[in-house]
Every structure is written in C-alpha cells, then in structure tokens.
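This section describes the prediction task in plain terms. A model, or a person checking by hand, is given the sequence of a single protein chain and must write out its three-dimensional structure as a string of tokens. No templates, partner chains or ligands are provided. The sample shown here is typical of the held-out split.
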Amino acid sequence: MRIAGIILIHVLVAVLLPASAADRDRDAGTVVNSDASVMDVIDFATNNLDINKIGQFVCNQGRFYPSTGEVGVTAEWPIGSGHEQMYRMNVFVGIPGNVVQSRNSSVREWNPLPGYHNGDSGFLAVSNDEETWPLDGNNQPFWPVRDAEGNPHILSQQDSYGVYDDGNNSLGDQDPSQYLNIEIHQSSYAWNTELDADYIIFQFDVVNNGEPKDSMYFTHYTDFDCGGWRGLVEYADDFVEFEPDRRFYYQYDADNDTDNWEGDPFLIGTVMLETPEINGEELGITDWHWTDSVDEPDGATQDKEFFWYMSSDPRLRDDADTWPNLFHGDDIHFDDPSTIPDRGTVIAVWMSSGPYAVDTGDTLRFICAMVAGADYDAISANVDRIWDVYASGYQVKTVPQPVVAADALGGRVLLQWDNRIDTGYIDPFTGTNTLQGYRIYKTEDPQRVEWTLNDSVAVGEYTDTGDPAVYTWTDMDVINGFYYSYAVTAYDSLGAESGIAALDDGTTTVEVRPSAHPNTGDIGQVNVVPNPFVISAQWERERLGNLPEGEPVRELAFVNLPARCTIKIFTLDGDLVKTIQHDDGAGTEYWDIRSDFNQMVATGVYFFHVDADGSDHVGKFAIVR
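The expected answer:
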C-alpha cells in the first residue's frame, strides 16, 4: 500500500571517512557480563515487537539490541525487509561517580528480575501472547500490569513489560554500599493503525529503593546508523538534527544511499514525551550531545566520566586532551549539529534529563518514542501524531483484525473468517458498534508492497449462519502453481480500518498457492511444467523479504498427480537424483531442482518415475540455462 520517495534534506557525498571509524567495534556486544555470558543471567528474557511496521528487539536488561546467541532485529523498517538502522539503544541512570548502564561493551550492569514474565518461556512479556505472561498460584497466565481494581492494564495492541535493577552494578560488586538499589519498570506500546504504524513508545519508571539521592540523571542513548550498521561506509556518513521545541531529534544518511539493501535509507529518531516535574514544571531534556561512539566513555570504571557527560560537567569539556570530541558548539548543555563534518560521521546521541532529588520509594517516569519515516515530511507528521496520542492518554482507535483461513485447491482460492468482530467491536470514541464490513486485498508481489483492493463484504453478508457465522469469499482469477497473498481488513463508518498499515510486513496476510485436484484417472497424464525448465526465467520467484543471502525460488511442477504417490528423478545414466513423497492430497507437487544432498542439479535431460499403489508412469524433462 505504501509508495514513498525520499526527500533529501541535505545532499552530501562522503569522500573521506573519519579514521576512528575504521577501528569501531560493530559486533553488537559479543562480550557481555565479565563473569558470565548473558545466556547465563538468571531471569533474562527477550522478545521482538512486531505489531506494526517497526521490528524491534526488547529485553529486561536496559538495552534494545541482541547480543551473541540472541535473535532479534533493531529498528527494522518496514518489518521483514532486513533494513535495520539501529546499532545500540540503552538507558543510563546515575548519580555523581556511580552510573548504571548496559552500553559498556564488557559489562551489563542492569540485572533482570523475575516474576514479570513466564520464566519457562524465556520471552519478555507481551500483551498479545499469553504464553509469555507470568503464572499465578493456579498456574494461570496473568498480565503483570494491573489497574486499581486488579484488572489487566493494557494500553496498545502490543504492550511489552519487563523489570530490572542495578544488581550487576560494577561498583556495587566491589563495595556493596555502592549499589544504588534502583529498579526500572520498562514498558512499550505499539499500534498498527494507518496513522500509528511507524513508532513505538517506551516508558521507564525509575524506582529508588535505596537511600535518598540528591542529583540523579536519566539518559536515553541511541546509536542509529542510517543505511545499516554493516559496512564502514554506511555507518560513518550520518547526520543528526535536533528540534528542542518538539523534544525530537532524527538521523539521516549523507548521500541517501546504502550498499546494505535495495532502496534508500530512511529517517529515524527519538521523541522525549515526558520527564518528571520539579516545582510543578516538567524538567524536559536538560542535556543533549552527539558524539562519535568511538570517542565516548565506555570503560567499566568510567562512571565519573559517564556522569559528567550526562550532566554536561565543565570539567569534562575542559579536559580536551583526553576527551576532545565530546562537546560541539558554545552551549555546553546542547550540542550544535551544524558542527558535524560535511561528509557526515559516526553518530551516537546522549539525551539526558536531570538533576532530580529522590527520596526512598520515589518513582521517576520517563517516556520516549522511537519513530521512523521515509522522508522528513513523513517522520515529522509521525512526531505530531505521537504527541497527539500521548496527549490523549493513548486513545488510539483500533478495529480488530479478522483471523483468515485459506483453501487453494481446485483452481480457486477460498477465504473464510467468522463474524465475532460484528458484535464485539465498540468504537471507543462513540461507545457504539460502527463496523461497516470487510475489505479483501490481493497481491502477486512476493514483497507484498503493491496491493489491489479486490472486493468488500458488508456486515451480515455471511455464508454460514452457524455460531459463529462464517464469511466466505472466492477468487477464481488465479492460476495453479502461482503464489498469491490476501488480506482481509475490517472497517467502520468513521474510516478506521484494521491492519491496513501492515499489509507489506506479512503479519496480517495469508499466502497461498492454488493447486489442481488430484488425478483420479489415468496416471499417464502426469507431466512436468514448464518443460524445458529454464533457469533464471520469469517463473523464478524472488524470496519474500529480498534477503541478501536468498536465491530466487526455482521450482518446476509435477502436475496431474494422484493424491498420494512417490516421485523419483534420475539422470540419463540412471543415477537417482531426488525422491519426493507426495501426500498432501493435491494434484501438484513442486521441486526446487535440488538433489537429495541439497545440491543444485546440472542442466540436462532427466527421467521421472511416478509410483502410486502399483501403477506407475515414466516421463522425461529438460533443465536448461
């Protein structure tokens, strides 16, 4: 549904890369806690946010990128594309001389806490998957965030929740009196409506379980890489712009080009939505710095420097011999983006708020959003939308998504879904059921980018009047052996539509491949199409997602098959190449022209032998280039 061009904010050519970038470690944290690998951390949990167009890794350790042995994507947009533009994102909390963080490449100081997810699953709790929820005394799942009446408190179509403390604080490990006893309750909120598919909101409730603290700072750290973090050229030519009035910064690529994927880099940024109040006024962003991530504090014992940078301490700026690249411009608290070299550079952003005086038991709340857009106009509109949603208390109107089943036998596609949305949908703004009907979208594009609205079905036009009633829709305009994707959305009278923003990510769609009914007559009708099979011809299908390592899908078809049979493929010399057991009840079987040893077969002429309950047939086909 989305066709977006890139509007260049600046057109710059990177002709020289900073020398320091060549030495930058891009291994996403292969070294973790100094005493044990992250996989050994008790109660550690991860998950992947996937409800909208942003794919994002989350865990309960104060970081938002996978380490060694973990699976996940970082700021992938659109989801499923392989276009990732984040290297690191972290949270820091500290007082003078003692900062807790997970940015450091050798130490993870945030310690995961139990009781907030299903420990047996290893997954961080997400609201749309009860198998990730913690279990109560009766071994039943429950959502860990509750309202005043004890009911589940879920704000979006996909909330996530995890809790961690500073139990791995390096200074506390040396001297227990140095543990800050700080605990963070981390939440995220995401929606997939057309207006809300390009951002995720993160909330951090910082709880002081320790002694009162006079000067606490919170820092949200991002290391975005426009064009991807693989390849020196791609992460070393970025720019950042800061809009203090909207508490928003965004990064973009200098030459608007990348070698990591087809298409252009997108814009990505962060909005600080909420910070605590002091004397009735919100403190907001107090310090904002961009830096080459090679030239920033990173050592396990550099807590003093960490805090000085978070709080813009003049002593750190004055130490130009040791830290020459940490401050940019005349304002010590807010860096000037215009000082970035014309070629761009490797950029990390430290966005801080403080100082705060906190008593024992106090909670400080910080809310920010990660946002993406194809160009400045798009990301700016998304920022406006984020502020509107935040101001409304996260009142986002969402229409439920129908659950669709598909059958593709007999030269047609049959879609089915039930009518539970008909009676269950209530518009949160009107308090009434405004559902109008369902729309059916279809595409033959393996990337699921170009879609066609094929038909619509009004509420009540179901075929089966059982309980629940079932809607059906049939597509006869298909060809056996070809791939088709379908999506069914629900829409209301005020224009809201479910899943329309996520058609291209595959999460709300079904993919089918129509096949003929099985042959119940003469087995001699079995043949191969196309014959000859020409490698790299037009029937090769690009793999979904266009993964760099993926080859095209090369398949020839055996047609007019019985419902169950054995197919054997031989060379002209009689060598067995492949054995295929066909037992899916259809009349077609596909072969990827690979041998039983998963090797691409050579060009030439081959025989096939089909055996079905004592009846057999021999045929011949060719593979050419």
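For orientation: Residues 166 and 296 are 22 Å apart (CA to CA).
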